[in-house]
Design brief:
Length: 631
């Protein structure tokens, strides 16, 4: 009977002093009347709950229905504590959907009124027959508390139940869909149309390809709400001129291979756009320039694909010229956007000059602290950061572990420096128990895992028994069995050495998680069943990523990460140029998201690109299989 939620609601009442009136809502710091809806926390109106129709319930459940109706009366009279105590006294409910929905409505209303909206969301999502008002109310809660998947699901469901369109709702739906890492599973033509639009546009990559994908979607969905009233951001795609991009990379000297790999990925994206433009020119010579919608058939469809024009690119060698020289050359050549540098030392140097140069820049590495001057906000950012740091994988790993409900982790840490950084990130974010097994050589893995699993304590108990009875006995050390999962922060060969160590200590049935650095370049057959994080280009490549993967055989290429980084830099670069040309779009910075080669990429107000790698399961043949995303 939702005991956990009942207890949470009672605690909420205790914190709020068991007040008889709804708590007064305060405005979030920095919010104002002009703050976007997603950043406000407006008060929630109270709703009078409707009682159950007892006569329609099976006779054996009517007693519970009467009890819930009494609790509903108490809620409507603002007697929240009494209502909760009555519900608690009812005991477990029989299996009946009408009773369950009434209970969830009652608990949700109490949690909203007593100031616990996050728990209210959890409860209200369980209602199987919500009406339009309840959908809109839940959607508002989800928007306020940055639960993008929930917000998109409720907004779209409400739209399917309603009859009118408004621009604010269209924009809220699109914002939530683009911010959600895991899009919700929904049915119905309206929901399926929205989800397909999100998928096609996120997979398109560059602005040019996104414009083409939007036109194709509109042609196939002439009556869809998103076509009848475009989200504002998509309407702005009509206003775009291909920029001149300057790329700063080490393409000579000892780092030449690194720089050329990034350049290869960058040019792969460029040539993909160029090929599409050439194909379009051959098949649609009469396309009107710079128009998102160029013609319409009498039935309201027939949207033409806008013309694709390639960007202009110039490369600068960071090994043969210093940064001031490159910046001066970029200004003299009227460069609109700079991509690079790649090396951290150069990135730090470049960030120091952020206030001195007006050219927007996408740096291909991360630095400590902000890359932009303190007076720059999301509306005036000039420096953006894209990289493939291990911390991105740690963030995704923590979300995975939370979703799985794990509480106690065995974390095996190898000798690589990145493993220590990953452990630090895990410890700073993970709320459960962590026991670490560290080792400095592969031959010591079994011993380190044994220590972490308290095998030594088992051996000590055995010695005590021998001393007590005065003779030796057969003995098999017993390890602790209370771990929920094992996380391997190890190099590839160390990962292979971990498998027999886990088997030796009878821990090979635990769920195991590894990052990309732990699995590349090895036969992964022995790791069957492991959950692994990897770049999409190596796990589920499509479009330009698939072409790049095939061209350079990246599955076995130690520089695969750099090629993928180059492709993502090209695609994100076109979006940064679009933002420069459409300043009003900066208010929705977080909705700039693409399914990139290195991960799902999304711009953030700090200028740092958020990267989410693909979640996979290793099959019995050692292949990576992308996991379906949870709603």
């Amino acid at each position: 009977m939702c005991n956990r939620i009942l207890i949470l609601a009672l605690c909420s009442l205790a914190v709020n002093g068991c007040q008889s009136t709804p708590p007064e809502r305060s405005v979030a710091p920095g919010a104002s009347a002009t703050t976007p809806v997603s950043q406000r926390v407006p008060s929630q109106p109270t709703l009078d709950l409707a009682p159950l129709e007892i006569a329609k319930l099976p006779q054996e459940t009517q007693r519970f229905g009467i009890g819930i109706n009494q609790a509903i009366e108490l809620v409507n009279e603002e007697q929240h504590e009494e209502s909760l105590l009555l519900l608690q006294a009812l005991g477990p409910l029989p299996a009946n959907q009408a009773l369950a929905n009434a209970l969830h409505r009652t608990l949700g209303e109490i949690l909203i009124r007593t100031g616990n909206p996050v728990a209210a969301i959890e409860v209200m999502e369980k209602i199987t027959d919500p009406n339009l008002l309840e959908r809109k109310r839940l959607a508002q809660l989800c928007v306020q508390h940055d639960q993008a998947s929930c917000a998109s699901q409720q907004l779209i469901a409400a739209q399917a139940m309603g009859t009118t369109l408004d621009q604010e709702t269209q924009d809220l739906i699109w914002r939530a869909l683009m911010q959600a890492v895991d899009p919700p599973a929904m049915e119905g033509s309206i929901a399926e149309g929205w989800l397909l639009l999100r998928q096609r546009l996120r997979q398109a990559g560059s602005v040019q390809m996104t414009r083409a994908a939007l036109a194709q979607w509109r042609k196939a969905h002439p009556r869809h709400p998103a076509n009848l009233m475009l989200p504002s951001q998509l309407g702005l795609l009509a206003f775009y001129q291909p920029p001149k991009i300057g790329v700063m990379l080490p393409v000579s000297g000892s780092l030449q291979n690194i720089g050329l790999s990034v350049r290869g990925g960058f040019m792969s994206g460029y040539f993909a756009d160029l090929a599409r433009a050439e194909d379009q020119a051959l098949t649609a010579a009469d396309t009107q320039p710079n128009r998102l919608v160029t013609s319409r058939t009498p039935d309201g469809g027939g949207y033409e694909e806008p013309p694709l024009e390639p960007v202009d690119v110039v490369f600068f060698d960071t090994e043969s010229s210093d940064l001031p020289q490159i910046m001066q050359a970029a200004r003299s050549q009227s460069v609109d956007l700079l991509i690079g540098p790649l090396l951290k030392t150069r990135v730090v140097e470049s960030a120091r000059s952020a206030a001195e140069d007006p050219i927007t820049q996408l740096m291909l590495n991360y630095i400590e602290g902000p890359a932009n001057p303190a007076d720059q906000t999301g509306q005036g950012l000039k420096r953006f950061q894209l990289g493939t740091a291990i911390e991105d994988e740690t963030n995704t790993l923590v979300n995975l572990l939370n979703q799985a409900g794990h509480q106690r982790l065995l974390v095996v840490v190898g000798s690589a420096s990145w493993a220590r950084r990953a452990l630090f990130g895990l410890r700073s974010q993970w709320q459960g128990e962590i026991v670490v097994a560290e080792f400095d050589a592969t031959k010591n893995i079994t011993e380190s895992v044994g220590r972490a699993m308290d095998v030594e304590a088992s051996k000590a108990r055995h010695q005590d028994i021998i001393a007590l009875i005065g003779e030796s006995t057969e003995f098999l050390p017993r390890a602790r069995r209370d771990f929920d999962a094992v996380v391997a922060l190890t190099r590839p060969n160390e990962t292979l050495g971990l498998v027999p160590a886990l088997k030796f200590h009878f821990a090979d049935q635990m769920p195991a998680y590894v990052g990309s650095q732990a699995i590349r370049g090895i036969d992964k057959t022995a790791l069957a069943g492991f959950t692994a994080l990897e770049m999409p280009i190596l796990a589920a490549a499509n479009g330009p990523s698939a072409v790049l993967n095939d061209t350079y055989a990246l599955s076995d290429n130690p520089l695969a990460e750099l090629y993928a980084l180059g492709l993502d830099a090209y695609q994100l670069g076109t979006w940064l140029s679009w933002l420069e040309q459409n300043p009003t779009a900066r208010a929705e910075l977080g909705t700039i998201a693409i399914d990139g080669a290195t991960g799902q990429l999304r711009l953030t107000p700090s200028g740092r690109v958020q990267r989410t790698p693909t979640r996979t399961r290793i099959d019995y043949r050692g292949n990576l299989r992308a996991l379906s995303r949870s709603p």
